[in-house]
Amino acid sequence: MLRRTLLSILAASLLAPAANHGQLDQIIEETRRAFQVPGLAVAIVHNDAVIYAKGFGVKSLSTNAPVTTSTRFAIASTTKAFTTAAMGLLVDEGKMNWDDPVRKHVPFFRLSDPLANENVTLRDIVSHRTGLSRHDNLWYNSPWSREEIIRKIGLVPLTKPFRSAYQYQNIMFLTAGYAVGLTSAKGWEGFLRERILEPLGMRNTDFSAHDAMKAPDAATPYELRENKVTDVPWLIMDNLGPAGSMNSSVDDLSRWVRMQLNEGVFEGKRIIKAATLKETHTPQTPIRMDDPNMRTVNDGTHMMAYGLGWTIQDYRGHRMVSHGGAINGFRAQVALLPDEKYGIILLSNLGSINMVECLRTAIADHLLALPETNWNAKYLAVAQARDEASKKQLAERDAKRQTNTKPSHQLSAYSGAYTHPAYGEAHLSATASGLELQWSNWKTPLEHFHFDTFHVKGGATPLRDSLIQFQLKPTGEVESVQFLDQTFRRKQ
Question: What is the pTM of this model?
C-alpha cells in the first residue's frame, strides 16, 4: 500500500505542469507589496502533489522574522468547510442526515419565525438560507458561551423570509459544529482532531488563538488604519469555534486540500465518502451579484452559489470551489479548481483588505494559462471606492447634524440599565466627562451629537462612529435607547 501511494504521488508530480515558479514569485510579491501586506504564505496543489510552497515577507514587523510554510495564521471562516466535513463523516455513519431537523441534534435550538422554527434543517444552517442576518456582535468579543449565543440568536427576528435568500450567518455554523459535538459525544474540537486532523497529519493546526499564540512559528496580526500598517491583538473567538476559530499553516492545509481534490482519499486512506464530499461542493443557495463592485472583482463569473461550507462559481469557463476567511489582522483563502485538480492556499497577516481573493484569481489565471488581467488595480479600485462611499455616508450624516442643541434631560436621567431579549443588558452611566455606555465586553464614552442622540467617536468597538439614540415616553421620561440597530428598553 505504501509503495503504491508513493508511486501515485510521484506520478502526479510528473504529470503536474511545469508551473513557472519565477513568474509565480513575481505575481505574489507584486500583489503583497501593492496591498502593503507584511507577510504571506502560499501553497499550490496539483494532482495530489504540492507543486509550490513558499513564504513571503515577514510574520512580525518588529522582529523581521520571515514567513515560512509552517507559519501559523488564523484561517477564520475557512474553518466552516472543516465543520461541514465533520458533519459529512456523521452522515456517512448514519448518525446525521443533511435534512435532519436541527433540534434532533441541538434540542434547545429555535428561530423566532414559526415557519422557519418548525422546518429548519442542518442543510439550511450551513447554506446561509435561514432568513437571519449576521448579528455578529452576539459573539464578537462577547462574554457569552456557545450555548448562550445559540439561544440568543433564536430571539432575534428574521430579516428575510425563510429559505428565500442568501445571508451569511456565522452563528448558524456555530450551531452546526455544536450539533457535531453533541452527536459524536466528543465535542467539535475532539471529533475534528480525531477524524480529520490526525488522519491527515495536520499537527500544526489548532482551534484557539490561545494555542496559536504559543506556537513557535506564528504570525503577528496587522490591520491597515489610516493607510498605516498597525499591529493588533489576536482575537480570542473560542465562543464562535466551528464558524471560524481554527489556525493553521499552508503546509497543513495542503494536506486538507489534497484530500478535497482526491475525492475524500488521503495517501491511500479514505477519510470521507466521495459522494458526501461532493455534496458539500454542490450549490445549495444562489448568491446574487447585484453589487457592481462584486461584479468587478468577479469578472469572468456568471453564477455564484453557496454549497455546504464552500462557495461555488464558474470562473472564465472553469469551476471554482472556494472559501475566504477574515478576522482581526488575518485573511485566508482556500480555492479548488476540481476539474483541473488544482488547489490554492493563501494565508496573510493583514486584515481589512481583500488581497487574498485578488491573488487567488491572479494565480488561477497563471495556472490555467488564461489572459493576464491587472487584478491588483481592480481590487484596489474597489477598496478605494468602498472607503470613499463610507466616508461620504458619514459626511452626509454629519452634515445633517443640528448645531446648538442640547439633551432634553440632565445626563443623570439617561443613566440606568436597558435590556434587549437577545442582546442582554446595556448600562448607561453619567460620569464627570459625560455619558458612558457599557454593553457586552465593550465600554465606550459618548459625545453629544444633537438633541437626544449621542455619538461614539473613533475607537475599535463595533460601535465605532455610530449614533446612540434615546427615545422618550409621551410624558418625557427616557424609555429606551437604540444602537447596533437594536432597541434596548429601560428596566423598571
Answer: 0.94
